[in-house]
Amino acid sequence: MIYIFKTDEENRLQTNQEMEKGCWVHLVKPTEAEIQSVIDETGVLPEFVRAALDDEERARIETDEGQTLIVVDTPFREPGADAGVLSTIPVAMIILPKLLLTVCLYENTVLDDFVKGRVRNVETSFKTRTILQMLYRNANRFMYHLRQISKQSREVEEALHLSTENKELIQMMSLQKSLIYFSTALKSNEVVLEKMMRHEQVKNYPEDAEILEDVIIENKQAIEMTDIYSNLLTGTMDAFASIISNNLNIVMRFLAAVTIVISVPTMLASFYGMNIRFMPFTDSPYSFLVIVLIALSLGVAAAFWLKRRRMF
């Protein structure tokens, strides 16, 4: 799908029919025909357009033939995935001599904010500044999802206090997986942002350099939050794993103690169950009662001894 936008005189983002100078062309999961159409009309390098169509494309910045390619990772929730499972996908931002081009394999919440007019003071004719605003929005989106992950981890932790089942542990593993994706993506984005600080198009405009510094600060904060949440989640998972293991040991110890208590009177009863003469009390009319009392006494004595030994 091809979208074309351009800001009017009142800095409002409007749809445009043609790829003219100062506009923003946005490609979402484009077909080969759409890709070729954009290449023919804008003269963009084919490898730059296809950079974001690979899920495994790394974050980078590259300049060739007067065109600048910036690839960064952005948060993404796959269709049908659980609420806590997040990953990242690459987004390509290409600065051309006449216009700005963005390419994404899926609908992207960061760029959708611009499309839907949620971001103010956007001027598509200032290509570098628009990209910096997108990068800042992208860092904010990471922060938003990190706060959501923190909230979900607290809810799962509270559920684990009541029920130590596999379901909650699997949810925590999913959150941990998302944090790993975020940490890798944010550190890759940081390298790209640091390289942009040395870019001529940023150096020539102090306002752009100031925005980029804010983006770097926001990205660093997201990295720190990711590390903190990851360490907390790892510690919580280890603690609950130890609790579950300890609970299992307590149950096994209790069952072993019960087995010992039952086995003592059972052993005495089994002796009298044998068809052997000359056992004590065999000729007494009260033999059954005496044997039962002795067996119960031995069981109580065994239980008392185990209690003293803190077996249960």
Kindly identify the CATH topology of the largest domain: Beta Polymerase, domain 2
CATH C-level class of the largest domain is: Alpha Beta
CATH architecture of the largest domain: 2-Layer Sandwich
Q: How many whole angstroms does the radius of gyration measure?
A: 34 Å
**Structural class by SSE content:** alpha+beta
Number of helices: 8
Helical residues, percent: 55-70%
Give a topology summary.
Layout: E1 2-7, E2 13-15, E3 24-28, H1 32-42, H2 46-49, E4 60-64, E5 67-76, E6 87-95, E7 100-104, H3 109-115, H4 127-162, H5 166-196, H6 200-203, H7 206-273, H8 287-308
Parallel strand pairs: 3-7
Antiparallel strand pairs: 1-2, 1-3, 4-5, 5-6, 6-7
Helix pairs in contact: 3-4, 4-5, 4-7, 5-7, 7-8
Explain what this protein looks like in three dimensions.
This protein starts with a strand and ends with a helix. Helix content is 59%, strand content 14%. By secondary structure, it is of the alpha+beta class. The longest helix has 68 residues, at 206-273. The mean pLDDT is 81. It contains 8 helices and 7 strands.
